[in-house]
Specification:
The chain has 329 residues and is mainly alpha-helical. The chain folds into three domains: 46 residues; 60 residues, no CATH class; 192 residues, Cytochrome P450 (Cytochrome p450), CATH 1.10.630. It contains 14 helices and two strands. Helix 8 packs antiparallel against helix 9, helix 9 packs antiparallel against helix 14 and helix 11 crosses helix 13. The radius of gyration is 28 Å and the shape is elongated. The protein starts with a helix and ends with a helix. This is Cytochrome P450. It comes from Escallonia herrerae. It holds the Pfam family p450. Belongs to the cytochrome P450 family.
């Protein structure tokens, strides 16, 4: 009997130790969650009101697939300015026009420094883009170039003839195709025309031909840029995972933006050679950017010229959506 009690005692001892380990783990986990919750409350003491959210996930589950609808619903409870935590990233959301105007217009310099999305964080132009750099002399120079040249109605109107020429070429192409009794691919036609209008505004030349298939590669690059910019990227909400690139978004983004950047570099170098050879000016956006760069080298270098040209081509992202819809017709 003594032997049987001894054996039963030795069998119960490991089970007792296992139970204690499980309880210790649960207790430590509970303390960790309480600590995280308390830390979150401490951080939010000077922030606008907002939903507390879950540990680690924050308010991601509350936002769901329709952020605009979720923000409108939360604003009714927490007010026009609220704090939302997406993963481990804290955000302040302005949900009414007056509050957005206060942030984006009256205090735009204070809020100019934004978190760079992981999709472009490793790219060369991430540190030279006006959307991501903090307020300073470089930021002001970039803003001046944007308002003076890229979004200036008078400047764009002066290049209207170049864009009109592209439309005439498109009409001639459609006429020739119809004469031969061939089908017109509306998506490719619209994309090529819009792409050439943009390239004429920037470089005074066409970068694609209506008869060529070369536009497909550029079309794919623009489509990829649009997709990676709009795609949910878990790294943006959990920065500790940034070295993993779990979804491969950074890799796709680097290839797509690299394609756009290579095209811009080609035209910049060619224009610099033309200037050294004293060839006539084109009077396009590239000439304007280079003129400004020569006068303000410290604040606006050739890298900034490249970034603005890539940005101009990124505007073509909207054309991909049009291309998709036109293919569905």
């Amino acid at each position: 009997m003594y032997i049987s009690k001894l054996i039963s005692g030795t069998n119960q001892q490991p089970e007792h130790i296992l139970a204690m380990e499980i309880l210790s783990f649960l207790y430590a986990s509970l303390l960790f969650l309480i600590f995280i919750h308390g830390l979150e409350l401490f951080r939010r003491r000077k922030l606008p009101p907002g939903p507390i959210g879950l540990p680690l996930l924050g308010n991601l589950l509350e936002i769901g697939p329709k952020p605009h609808a979720a923000f409108a619903k939360l604003a009714k409870k927490y007010g026009p300015l609220m704090t939302i935590r997406l993963g481990s990233v804290t955000n302040v959301v302005a949900s009414v026009p007056d509050m957005a105007r206060e942030i984006l217009q009256k205090n735009d310099e204070s809020f100019s420094g934004r978190t760079t999305p992981d999709a472009i964080a490793e790219l060369d132009h991430a540190d030279h883009a006006v959307a991501w750099i903090s307020a300073g002399n470089v930021w002001r120079a970039m803003r001046k170039v944007l308002t003076t040249y890229l979004t200036n109605k008078r400047k764009l109107d002066s290049l209207r003839d170049l864009r009109q020429k592209v439309v005439e070429e498109m009409v001639q192409h459609v006429h020739g195709v119809s004469q031969r009794g061939e089908a017109v691919e509306i998506g490719k036609l619209a994309f090529t025309a819009s792409l050439n209008q943009m390239s004429n505004t920037c470089y005074s030349v066409n970068v694609a031909d209506f008869k060529s298939e070369d536009v497909r590669g550029f079309q794919k690059a623009v489509k990829t840029v649009m997709e990676v910019d709009a795609q949910f990227n878990i790294v943006d909400y959990f920065p500790l995972l940034k070295h993993l690139d779990l979804q491969g978004i950074r890799k796709k983004s680097k290839a797509a933006y690299g394609c756009l950047g290579a095209l811009c570099d080609k035209f910049i170098l060619q224009r610099l050679r033309d200037r050294e050879s004293s060839l006539p000016r084109c009077g396009d956006l590239l000439d304007s950017f280079l003129d400004f760069s020569q006068e303000n080298k410290a604040e606006f270098s050739l890298k900034h010229v490249r970034v603005l040209l890539v940005f101009a081509y990124s505007v073509t992202k909207a054309l991909v959506q049009f291309w998709r819809r036109s293919n569905e017709l």
